[in-house]
Structures are given as structure tokens and as C-alpha cells.
Design goal:
The chain has 171 residues and is mainly β. The protein contains one helix and 14 strands.
């Protein structure tokens, strides 16, 4: 037996990622190497002052996050809440579950993310009025195909400014 179905958090290999200037961190994409077929999961480290991804919700794919270390602000359905180590966060299939993390601290925010790999998923981005159709691997805005970060280059403009200050929340 090769035991590829077991990983220890301390031995994960992280790769740096970035999408524009506001979305940066590190990720250990472990679901494929562990043999998962219908689940997608990874451990991610969100750098200080960065957003996790554009604000979005899924039509066919629930998500579960477990905060492993650090703190971040969660924007969900245009409400804000700080999440911390030990929190378990579930997002269902509706606009009310639109979400995005922002690392408002000076330390890394580390979390585990789990979702169903539904090939029929449609992801909607309320801030920029875009949709992503996974099966086609295409992003659309007003019926035109567009880039993933179209109108998401400045995510802070959609946030209440009091939640974006790194100094006021990093205690």
C-alpha cells in the first residue's frame, strides 16, 4: 500500500499563486495527488493585505472551509465577520452565500478548502456581473466572454472601508 490517501499538514508543498495585484498567496493542491475524483480540496495561505478571490457564489457546488491558522475578514452576502483559527465555514448554493476572504492582518491566513468538483457548476460574481460556466471553461459578462478579473481589479471598492484596515484589526 502506498498510503497516498494520507497527508500531514506539516509536509505539504506550497506553490505561490497570484491573480492580479490584489489576489496572492500560496496553495497546496492535494486532492488530485491523493486520488480524489469527485472532491476538490487544498490548503491555502492567504498573504497579508490580499483577497482570496473575487466575490462569488456557486449554483451547483457547496464549499467548506476550515480556518487552520490566523484571522481574516469574511464578506458574505454583503455582511462582514472576522473568522479565526478553528472556525468551520459552509457556503451553500445561493446568492446569499456569495463570499470572499480578505486578510486584514499582518500575518498569513491559512485554511483548508473543500468542494464538490461539479462539472456543471456555474459561478456568479455579483460585484462585476459575471458568470463562469465550468463545463465550457468560459467567463461571461453581459453575454460577452471576458477575463476572470474583469472589473475585479479593485475589490476593496465593494467593501466597507472599516474592515480593510490592517492596523485596526491586527491585535
Amino acid at each position: 500500500m502506498n498510503w497516498n490517501n494520507i497527508k500531514n499538514l506539516s509536509g505539504l508543498q506550497f506553490e505561490r499563486w497570484s491573480a492580479g495585484d490584489k489576489y496572492q498567496g500560496e496553495s497546496a493542491e492535494i486532492s488530485a495527488e491523493m486520488g480524489a475524483k469527485n472532491l476538490g480540496f487544498h490548503v491555502e495561505i492567504l498573504s497579508p493585505g490580499m483577497f482570496s478571490c473575487p466575490y462569488h457564489f456557486h449554483r451547483h457546488e457547496e464549499e467548506l472551509f476550515i480556518v487552520l491558522d490566523g484571522k481574516a475578514m469574511l464578506r458574505q452576502n454583503n455582511q462582514y465577520r472576522e473568522v479565526t483559527s478553528g472556525d468551520i465555514i459552509h457556503f451553500g448554493l445561493s446568492e446569499e452565500n456569495a463570499h470572499q476572504f480578505y486578510n486584514h492582518t499582518h500575518k498569513d491566513f491559512k485554511f483548508f478548502a473543500l468542494s464538490a468538483n461539479d462539472e456543471n457548476d456555474i459561478v456568479e460574481y455579483p460585484d462585476s456581473d459575471k458568470i463562469y460556466i465550468r463545463k465550457q471553461k468560459k467567463m461571461f459578462q453581459h453575454k460577452n466572454e471576458v477575463h476572470y478579473l474583469t472589473d475585479e481589479e479593485e475589490p476593496e471598492k465593494y467593501w466597507d472601508k472599516k474592515y480593510l484596515s490592517q492596523d485596526s484589526m491586527d491585535k
